[in-house]
Amino acid sequence: xxxxxxxGGPAGRIAAIEAAQIGEEVTLFEKEYLGGKCLNHxxxxxxxxNDVARFIKDSxxxxxMNITTKIDDINFQNLSKGIKNIIAKIRRVExxxxxxxxVEILNNTVEIINQKNKEVIVNDETYQFDKLIMxxxxxxxxxxxxxxENAKTYTDVLEFKDVPEKLIIVGxxxxxxxxxxxxxALGSKVHVLCRNSFLRxxxxxxxxxxxxxxxxxxxxxxxxxVNEIKQNGLTSxxxxxHGDVLxxxxxxxNSEILNGIVDxxxxxxxxxxxxxxxxxxxxxxxxxxxGGVGTTPVARMEGVVAARNACGIITxxxxxxxxxxxxxxxxxxxxxxxxxxxxxxxxxxxxxxFAGPGAFWRVLDRNxxxxxxxxxxxxxxxxxVTSISPSARTSMAYISKMMRDDYKTxxxxxxxxxxxxxxxxxxxxxxxxxxx
Length: 436
Ligand SMILES: Cc1cc2nc3c(=O)[nH]c(=O)nc-3n(C[C@H](O)[C@H](O)[C@H](O)COP(=O)(O)OP(=O)(O)OC[C@H]3O[C@@H](n4cnc5c(N)ncnc54)[C@H](O)[C@@H]3O)c2cc1C
Ligand SMILES: NC(=O)c1ccc[n+]([C@@H]2O[C@H](COP(=O)([O-])OP(=O)(O)OC[C@H]3O[C@@H](n4cnc5c(N)ncnc54)[C@H](OP(=O)(O)O)[C@@H]3O)[C@@H](O)[C@H]2O)c1
Fold this sequence. Notes:
CATH topology of the largest domain: FAD/NAD(P)-binding domain
CATH architecture of the largest domain: 3-Layer(bba) Sandwich
CATH class of the largest domain: Alpha Beta
Shape: globular
Helix content: 25-40%
Number of helices: 9
Distance between the termini: 54 Å
Structural class: alpha/beta
Strand content: 15-25%
Number of strands: 22
Bound molecules: flavin-adenine dinucleotide, NADP nicotinamide-adenine-dinucleotide phosphate
């Protein structure tokens, strides 16, 4: 069977590898860079910047304590160059891994899909398919604000000539928060402008910790309307603000190529069922293209599900307890529960993080993190977990797996930590196991 995959980001690349490993003949088309947004403009760029931002923050702390001098002469162009070089190296590794799995990679743009003839057109050449997996991802959403072409987006960040003196971020989600944390640490005076409230995905106590302890030097303006973006700043209903403007206003799925072929939702997302089947026979879709959570692990999972179903192995995507995260000086992890179930047996507990790697020197600032757990005290069921700590990302992924596998608080009674660690989750779980 011939399987064509369009888009070499996390969804498409992993779909292609899965289908090839199952034994099918697979061709993957990528119009720009293998690895997609995650590797080339998103997760990896933020990781690279954030490592340096944390290093600067640590140097400030150690300087205050007369341990070392402070590092504040950032060469932003060299920082960008370093990140780009590492990304290029990872890309080569991903390319080798994909080819080794048996995938043919073509560096081309798929221009037209002809569903009736089961073919795609690339540079006037036609490629036949039995099954087509679409994973064209998404791009930054540009809101209809006058002068928005004067603003930068995440794709421009590594092209900055220097650390901006004043950075105005329009948006109130994860990207706005992450760039606020990074550029504030690198020395910019950062303002975040939110049309409603900042970080609506977080509960109030968690949000309060983030603003007070992790974005303490950032000015956050809520309920503010931006009227016009200019080259040297923007005007809002509170007047003119001078600085470089960065838009972090969400994503738009790259679904135009499928217009008239598959059903598409109101936000441009391709509509799929849990097998990642679109409304058109033999066409599957995965990743940011289908909307929803919008993270790399979800895109990869959907890619695997699309590939398996395309190969005749019935599989469904499982969206329970998807760990979401955000990188500031510490990582913040949370679930998007949105549960409407009323459960009167729910109790919650929260504790600050521990001293230990990544947080030891913050003990006197009372900035070691914050972890909160909600459980059903009758059944021991773990209902929600939010964590701010140096180790939150790693522990949350395992907690997510345990929650999916229906572990209860009492399963933690004999939990053995590796000490020293900054993960306070197990302490809360053990507390609930004994006294909940
Ligand atoms: C700034 C930023 C930071 C982020 N940080 C994180 C993070 O820390 N953790 C996390 O989990 N997620 C993060 N994300 C989200 C993550 O990057 C995306 O969810 C993920 O990349 C989606 O994967 P995808 O394969 O669906 O799409 P994409 O990564 O967008 O890949 C789609 C690919 O399809 C290609 N393509 C499009 N059209 C065609 C065509 N016609 N022909 C051929 N190729 C085509 C594109 O060139 C692209 O390479 C971040 C996103 C951004 C913007
Ligand atoms: N660590 C990670 O896993 C990670 C990191 C970065 C990005 N990502 C993913 O990347 C995607 C994009 O992130 P994002 O932060 O840009 O998107 P987001 O979380 O969808 O947030 C978009 C923000 O833009 C605001 N907005 C939309 N239109 C606007 C307008 N016209 N004027 C002013 N504000 C406007 C929204 O405000 P309202 O809140 O008022 O609606 C919202 O806060 C998300 O799917 C995210 O999950 C993940």
